[in-house]
Amino acid sequence: MSGPETKGAGARTRARELMVQALYQKQIAGHSTAELVAQFRDDTAYARVDQAFFDEMFPAISDGQADLEKTIDGLIDRPLGQLDPIELSILLIGVHELGSRTDVPYKVVIDEGVNLARRFGATDGHKYVNACLDAAAMSLRELEVAGVGG
């Protein structure tokens, strides 16, 4: 599919959904970033996502996972190993996006994370994701959250 349906917020949401699946698979099966990029580019769902967004974000998140996990570890109330793999995947995306994509408003990042958790996560997991991403926004986007500037 091409044209306007592959652009905009819907395509970006689908790109985030694909990233959750790829990050989950990385955690469960241990595939490399390159293997996952190749696999997901061949997936029919890839044609419907914001490909530039996926191609920029997924490798950065996957390759930078250790640093992102350190940030997440400082935000959560339990050991990192106790996080559900889906919730960890969503938090990796959200924390990366909060830290590197200031063109995306923090409220959009949080809403997208909550919606991903509702769709893919455990019951009430969205509440935990919301609290963690809210804390991440306070830390990574302090001025934006406070309404300073812009």
What does this structure look like?
With 150 residues, the chain is an all-alpha fold. The protein has a single domain, classed as Orthogonal Bundle (N-utilizing Substance Protein B Homolog, Chain A). It is built from 8 helices and no strands. Helix 1 (8-29) crosses helix 2 (33-42), helix 5 runs antiparallel to helix 6 (106-120) and helix 6 (106-120) packs antiparallel against helix 7 (125-140). The longest helix has 22 residues, at 8-29.
How many structural domains in the coordinates?
Answer: 1
- Highest-level CATH class: Mainly Alpha
Q: First CA to last CA: what distance?
A: 36 Å
The whole-number mean of residue pLDDT values reads 92
Q: Give the biggest beta sheet.
A: none
Q: Tell me the CATH architecture.
A: Orthogonal Bundle
Overall SS class: mainly alpha
Radius of gyration: 15 Å
User: How much helical structure, as a percent, in the residues?
Assistant: over 70%
Count of helix runs: 8
Shape: globular
What is the name of the CATH topology? N-utilizing Substance Protein B Homolog, Chain A
DSSP strand content: under 5%
Order of helices and strands: HHHHHHHH
pLDDT < 50 stretches: 1-6
Number of strands: 0
In CATH terms, the superfamily is: NusB-like
